[in-house]
Amino acid sequence: MRMLVTGGAGFIGANFVHYTRQHHPEHQITVLDALTYAGNEASLAPVRDDIEFVHGSVADAALVDELVSRSDVVVHFAAESHNDNSLNDPSPFVTTNLIGTFTILEAVRKHGVRLHHISTDEVYGDLELDDPKKFTPQTPYNPSSPYSSTKAGSDLLVRAWVRSFGIHATISNCSNNYGPYQHVEKFIPRQITNVLAGLRPKLYGKGENVRDWIHVDDHNSAVHAILEKGRSGETYLIGADGEKNNLEVLMQILELLGQPADAFDHVTDRAGHDLRYAIDATKLRDELGWTPQYTDFRDGLAATVAWYRDNESWWGPLKQQVEAKYAAQGQ
Ligand code: NAD
Ligand code: DAU
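A: This is the predicted complex of the input protein with nicotinamide-adenine-dinucleotide.
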């Protein structure tokens, strides 16, 4: 199978390429990535000789048309992905997440190529802390931020192209990922690398917000299950029952790094901060027989801490600029 992976130099996309090389070496992989601040070719270094890498944008119609015309399937990860950035400047989110997805859709429609669209649980808005409910494929869309609203819009474009033009597409909405190669702007790598760099971790507000953590390899094994067995036109929610509030996660990071429990700062909260996400992945588990491998969050977190400790050359060059930007925002 000739597979076009958009956003393959980003966190989840790069891990997807590694996972695919390891578990499905029969696939030929082409990565299309614009190498924005979030993309890093070094994340693909271990597989660089086994894949084709194309530097370009998913919003470039001529390039996308050419690449899609010689693919059997597109796995579309490319996006602007950080909520905090979308609050400062929503414009690239509209271009990449909406126009980029539209561009991919027109190409797969023209060439009759299968699409798997990677999306987020944030399209569903948030839940109360004490609400027994979780997100299901029937939960109405109710996004909060410019990031999540552009992801919601991209999902709706895919659904419309399925219904109106009959394209062969599936969608997955996953919860918060953690693991190696995640940009240091995100919560878990930011706190780990703050400690490693001699800075104090930063917690938004009281730290009561809940995220449903899943290891990136479990996300990617679920994407492969959908590619192999998913029904066209369907949406699958991906999650591994990993609900934890931010304070709990930070306490585990501090402990794993041998720091006292009070060695962090409370900083300005995020505007419109979603309170809680929680995924009901019954459809994925029952229909496709998927199960996560990383069932112990603490083990997965310890491996992630070890990866950042061992790979300062990967994150070190990014750190100062990210922290300067946060400091200017009081975060
Ligand atoms: P990331 O920011 O780490 O990586 C995004 C990648 O896309 C980067 O390599 C970047 O260079 C590339 N990119 C950005 N604009 C592009 C463009 N116009 N053309 C081509 N490439 C472009 O993001 P991530 O965390 O790996 O997220 C990947 C996907 O998974 C996104 O669609 C995101 O919405 C979704 N998702 C992420 C999470 C999470 O926890 N990180 C959870 C659920 C879903
Ligand atoms: O739910 C899936 C989403 O998860 C993805 O769609 C997004 O692409 C991904 O970035 C992630 O979004 P979040 O906004 O939940 O992730 P982030 O890592 O930015 O923040 C996680 C939580 O930690 C959130 O409640 C905000 C908080 N936080 C974040 C940072 C960066 C802090 O308390 N301190 C921080 O320094």
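Residues 81-83, 120-122, 175-176, 186-187, 190, 202-204, 209, 211, 246, 270, 277 surround DAU (ligand 2) (CB under 6 Å). The two ends are 45 Å apart (CA to CA).
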